Amino acid sequence: MKFPLILLTILQLHSITQPGNENLIEKACTSTPNYALCISTVAADPQSAAAANMEEIGLILVEAVKGKAEEALSTIKEMKPTSPEYRAALEDCRDAYETVMMADVPEAVTALTRGVPKFAEFGMKDTAWEAEICDRRIGMVAEKGTLRDVNKCVQELATVACGIIRSLL
Amino acid sequence: MGVGFGSRKRSASIVVSLVSFLLISLIPFTAGRPISRGAALGVSEKVVRLGDLNFPWTNAALLWERTSFHFQPSKNWMNDPNGPLYYNGWYHLFYQYNTEAAVWGTITWGHAISRDLIHWFHLPYGMVPDHSYDVNGVWTGSATLLPDGRIVMLYTGSTNDGRQVQCLAFPANLSDPLLLRWVKHPANPVLTPPPGIGYTDFRDPSTAWLTPGGDKWRIVIGSKVKKTGVALVYETADFVDYKLLDGYLHEVPGTGMWECIDFYPVRLDSGYGSDTSANGPGFKHVLKASLDDDKHDYYALGTYDEESNRWTPDDPALDVGIGLRYDYGEYYASKTFYDQKKKRRILWGWIRETDAERVDVIKGWASVQSIPRTVVIDRKTRANLLQWPVEEVESLRGESFEFKDVMLEPGSILPLHIDSASQLDIEASFEIEEGDAAAIFVDSGYNCTTSGGAASRGLLGPFGIVVLAYKELSELTPIYFYIAKKPNGNLEYHFCADESRSSKALDVSSPVYGSSVPVQKGEKLTIRSLVDHSIVESFAQGGRRVITSRVYPTQAFDEPSKILLFNNATSAKVKATVKMWKMKSAGIRDFFSLNQAL
Lengths: 169, 598
Known about the structure:
The complex is a heterodimer of chains A (169) and B (598).
Chain A: H1 2-13, H2 21-30, H3 35-44, H4 54-78, H5 84-114, H6 117-139, H7 146-166
Helix pairs in contact in A: 1-3, 2-3, 4-5, 4-7, 5-6, 6-7
Chain B: H1 10-26, E1 35-36, E2 47-48, H2 59-64, E3 76-87, E4 90-98, E5 107-114, E6 120-127, E7 138-145, E8 151-158, E9 164-171, E10 182-184, E11 209-210, E12 217-225, E13 228-236, E14 242-244, E15 250-252, E16 258-267, E17 283-291, E18 296-305, E19 310-313, E20 332-339, E21 344-351, H3 357-363, E22 365-366, E23 368-369, E24 373-377, E25 385-389, E26 397-408, E27 412-416, E28 423-433, H4 437-440, E29 463-469, E30 477-485, E31 491-498, E32 512-516, E33 525-532, E34 535-540, E35 545-550, E36 562-567, E37 573-583, E38 589-590
Parallel strand pairs in B: 3-22, 6-38
Antiparallel strand pairs in B: 1-2, 3-4, 4-5, 5-6, 7-8, 8-9, 9-10, 11-12, 12-13, 13-14, 13-15, 16-17, 17-18, 18-19, 20-21, 21-23, 21-24, 24-25, 26-37, 27-36, 28-33, 28-37, 29-30, 29-36, 30-31, 31-32, 33-34, 34-35
């Protein structure tokens, strides 16, 4: 457990966290299955210094998930399918991430800001599921690639978001 | 007309068993190992199958998913049932509704009416988010019918600054039997979160009940203090001014936020329901909460002391949140009301979709309500409730098919020949002969949810029915009993619904649901199952345990879908009797057609 404390101290030295606020971030991230990813995601968001409660930390994670989903969509746009199966898989992936952008993320944001975290959990669980489904589909036609990496990131981030959200239930 | 199996010759049943056994060997019962997404994502795991990855949804398959006799709006998202009541010849249902999308969002109250709880008519919205105190959502609430004929509706408003408050509304015109328009009280919000309660931990006011003096009313609102679920009670004479009573009606540590609390009396000696204010020596009180943590509805039987305003569970080991559930499948935010016309307590429950949101967006809709259920105490056990679909659902029964005393040898499966199996009311009963297992063995620790489903064979089970099955059994949904034998020789019965192979699609959940079920001496094992396209509601032992499942087959729909009997036990012979009816559609539609002015 020494490493996370060191990490936090370094972050604080860089004024990335505010005094008092790092307890909140520490508490938030220890409730997730990927502490390091949580800390680095929060640290990367300029809003994190002002985060005053767990809901706001949750919103930071949801925003990060949204960013990754956008990255997935632009990755998909640039991919050139070499077969009908590949094209079909890409379309499914696009559908999946458009759902994340249009339904899951707005649902999570609305739920967190209105104090019904249950619906935010639904949104982030589904996001991880959509990313997993896309990955299964694309995995059949492409063993490696940027999209597969992004899928994995989305799943991991959504899982972290879920951890924070569950602590609000 | 179905083929009655009746009393066939033994030789025929041997042939059937042999053929069936051969079929069983060919069936890939373990096709596709479920892959868990891990406990990190929360208590209820969605198990995603590594099935046929190239199978896309057809329009036909998706259109088929809409139910024919369950309540659902024509499109978009629905969640909790709200303010159910019977008034002036009509049953009313309100519900949480998103006017914009097939996912939860800013919520409006939808409204529908029915003469018989089955044939529903959609009405214009009941209440919309148009005041600062509910602009972020007109959330869940309950109706109270006052003795003088007035109706009071209390509901939670999500305010413009993200707080949860309670609000009062009443019909604009009590002589309008449709109760179309509702007026929000100028004093709103009538309740704001009290000291010590989080401003987003305060929602879902209940129906009111009279105080011992008969001059005031009490309501209960759920909340949490750290991880303890609590029930706050307020007293009021006019529903505008309230006094928070000391202490809690009840609390249970570790259960988290209590949503949609319901609190009502049940009579010990009667099959009838009671008005919410009833109390006395012949009554028990049910306290129910929807647990935010695990998305299940829990209830417990207990005693309510009106003077001290305390409820005590009969069995603290089965307290609210740690004991019995209304339903062991997908079922949440349930709410009862007293039907004074037929003197019944009726239960509504919200049934979510269990497919990926992407499919809901394509479908354009999400969620249905359960068939309303009567709720009474189980007079045999006195330790649980019995739920049963309202008898009015039987008005949809059409052509019937009967199969009497069908012998199912160990390892057999038997199709029941009817031409279409998407809309069915099935009543099945089973008797077992233990066979060689009678004296020797023991296996306990069976749990439906971790069992691996109907493919996991034991000496005395599983056996039951299979619904929404495709002809090669590439998709099937078994609903079954499993009997385990305890070290002391007693039998332990389990009732399960196995969705692990219900669909080849990647984007549907496939858990195995279920629980143990008490079976009394001399009772046959019974299942009643209402199959209505993508929803199956199954009742064991007259409603002692209930499982609601969502099923989304890619092939087992419309004409090809089958229903079968099966006995996957390795030792027990099972005798089954089945009666089933094809169910007509309830024809749910708008009350006002487009060319009719309001």
